[in-house]
């Protein structure tokens, strides 16, 4: 479905030399230096840019909530989407502050929402099926989800966007993400399940038991990423994976948020490993399992603020760091141009 070109790393040394020749000690800008190097590889230009950034927030409901894995009812998904539309959520505040356009996608909320200019309808159903009873999705729904996610990113790209952040909203989606994590890593449910939207210890134990039952039910499906997504995924997670794959195909920068978004990364990388070259991991979530996800993916996040909100909040907070990387790479003087002696 996607034609992704792995990054040509033959220029890594030359890019790093340009960075090292800036008026600073080598490595003094820490992760900003590796970030600028990666951006230069992706953009293939002498001047880096963050152009017309978008935040795509995919929302959907999950049948697994029937098993009591969340303290909140599914209705909260739609209510929070209307809060996004009204501009009242954390992600709205961050997007306004950092000049990021936001778009909300109904990937399959339980009850359809009123028509609104800020809501894109890409519904695959009224929430997934309960994956403790059978597959969450059909194969056809997974294919359509990847296509829908790709459509949203292609639209952003046509508007001149070269950086896209991905967020989500969906009661029950930490359960789907934990199940996907276990399926893709081979870790146990206990290693992957966390508190989600605020479970107490008894609730976490119950959630672990539910996910363990689901993993046992679907273990035959975990040898292929598409069947894995169908078995225990979510409409919003699959659409995020499609968005990630399309962004990589278009050589865009992808700002990955936290636990749920990283589960989508696992699916995307399993489908097409080269896509990971285009991903920037914004932060380490405080949700149980995310650190292990990042270790499995062998990536280093930019921030560690103890976040576990979702919505794309960590991705939005990381965007100023991309702009800072552009600023020093483009405009910081070299030792030669500044007339500064090197030891």
Q: Would you mind describing this structure in some detail?
A:
This protein has 2 domains: 9-49 and 327-338, 5,6-Dimethylbenzimidazole Phosphoribosyltransferase, Chain: A, domain 1, CATH 1.10.1610.10; 54-323, Rossmann fold (3-Layer(aba) Sandwich), CATH 3.40.50.10210. Helices cover 48% and strands 9% of the residues. The protein contains 14 helices and 6 strands. It has helices at residues 12-20, 31-43, 75-86, 90-97, 139-158, 173-185, 189-192, 201-218, 225-232, 235-249, 259-271, 290-297, 313-331, 335-338, and strands at residues 54-60, 101-108, 119-121, 163-169, 253-256, 279-281. β5, α11 (259-271) and β6 (279-281) form a beta-alpha-beta unit. The longest helix has 20 residues, at 139-158.
Search tags:
5,6-Dimethylbenzimidazole Phosphoribosyltransferase, Chain: A, domain 1; 48% helix; 2 domains; alpha/beta; 343 residues; single chain; Rossmann fold; globular; 6-stranded parallel beta sheet
Q: Alpha-carbon distance between the termini?
A: 52 Å
- The share of residues in helices is 40-55%
Q: How many domains?
A: 2
Corresponding CATH architecture of the largest domain: 3-Layer(aba) Sandwich
**Would you tell me the structural class of the helices and strands?**
alpha/beta
User: How large is the radius of gyration?
Assistant: 20 Å
Determine and state the CATH class of the largest domain.
Alpha Beta
Record field, number of beta strands: 6
Q: Low-confidence parts lasting 5 or more residues at pLDDT below 50?
A: none
Q: Overall pLDDT, averaged?
A: 96
**Distinct helical segment count:** 14
